[in-house]
Amino acid sequence: MRLEDAKRTIMDDAWIAEQIRITPPAWVPVVIHGEWETRSEGVFYACFDANKHVTGSLKWSVISPNARLRWMIGIDYAAADREYGQCASLVQVLETTRADGTYEVYVYIVDEVVMGGVADLETFTRELLSMLARNGLEWIQISAAHGDNPVSNRFETKSNLNVKRHIAHRSGVPIAKLQPTILNAKDGAGGGKSGFDAGVRQLYTWIAQGRVRVHPRCTHTIRGLQAWDL
Questions:
Q1: How confident is the model at residue 97 (pLDDT cuts 50, 70, 90)?
Q2: Angle at 95 between CA 103 and CA 3, to 5 degrees
Q3: Any idea what DSSP says for residue 5?
Q4: Phi, psi (rounded to 5 degrees) for 17
Q5: Distance, CA of 130 to CA of 132 (rounded, Å)
Q6: β-pairing, 151-152 with 212-214?
Q7: What is the pLDDT of residues 4-24, one digit of tens each?
Q8: Shortest CA distance to 78 belongs to which of 173, 190, 172, 155?
Q9: pLDDT tens string 37-91
Q10: What distance separates the 2 farthest-apart alpha carbons in the chain?
Q11: Dihedral (Cα; 218, 219, 223, 224), 10-degree rounding
């Protein structure tokens, strides 16, 4: 049997072994072997190795000198008193198309903001902009930003819209003209359970293929990749 790709890749033993390598262990029984149920196998990102995937510098030109490099931000909110409930990640995304037409994505998690869930939104936004500043960036240089659904406590509502208000105020820009806007990470067809499953599986594949790197300053991200389970 062959795939319907440009190379008409043969689905032989080597191909099957590669699919097993880049698939989360808990899902291998269903995705690869056609069983009905997944099983918990402990740490989800078993493919993550800090000795391989953590680096303080990354030369994208080695991967592809003509690739498109974009800065992106992901935000999570919390209203309850959770120690690491509120966070933001600054990510470099490299998009490249190989000579054979193969499209590839590489990810470098460059920095993070991690705060308790009771931190107010003004403080969180200040730390978010400080993260950009220490990486030589302004908000307008971000290509895309996504945030979680709004959460509220008795003091305020933490949401994409309210973060935008704080950023616009600090930047001296009318909120209507602030770019990029912050999109809802859970909007659209991929926003439910199926989208979550697809996302964590895609990240697993990229890590296993060596397409993800993490800066050593992102201690919470590293710890999460080493310990998170389903």
A1: confident
A2: 15
A3: S
A4: -60, -40
A5: 5
A6: unpaired
A7: 877 788 888 888 888 878 888
A8: 155
A9: 666 667 889 999 999 999 998 877 666 767 788 999 999 999 888 888 899 999 9
A10: 60
A11: -40
